[in-house]
Please model this.
Amino acid sequence: MRRPARPSQPKPPPRQERVAAFRLGISAESRAALFLIAKAYRILARRWKTPFGEIDIVARRRNDLVFFEVKARDTLEDAAEAVTARNKQRIVAAAELWLAHHPQDAQRAIRFDVILMVPGKIPRHIVNAFDATR
Model:
């Protein structure tokens, strides 16, 4: 005999700062995507979610397949420091899953780039910011 379902507790609303951070991230990723399109990248995916984590942007340019991490902070230094070793591990693991799901991309040159976003400044694109071994 099945038990009756328990009434679920309503979730508390997200904190204001979490909502603001989420919106800032979405905005930064959108601006980064436009920046990359202007640099002749073809956006393949945005906010690609996996069990390992999320890849902010997956793009292709010529024979390169690039996985982008986008960080928005008040200063370039803060944005750069926000790309942690744990972020890198998650992105690399997610990229491996991308390649498993898109075997046609396995023959491309793979890169991990970072885009740093600071208010009022042109995005800073760091090419080959890290590799899969770090």
Remarks:
- The chain is about 35% helix and 30% strand.
- The two ends are 53 Å apart (CA to CA).
- The longest strand covers residues 64-72.
- The longest helix spans residues 16-38.
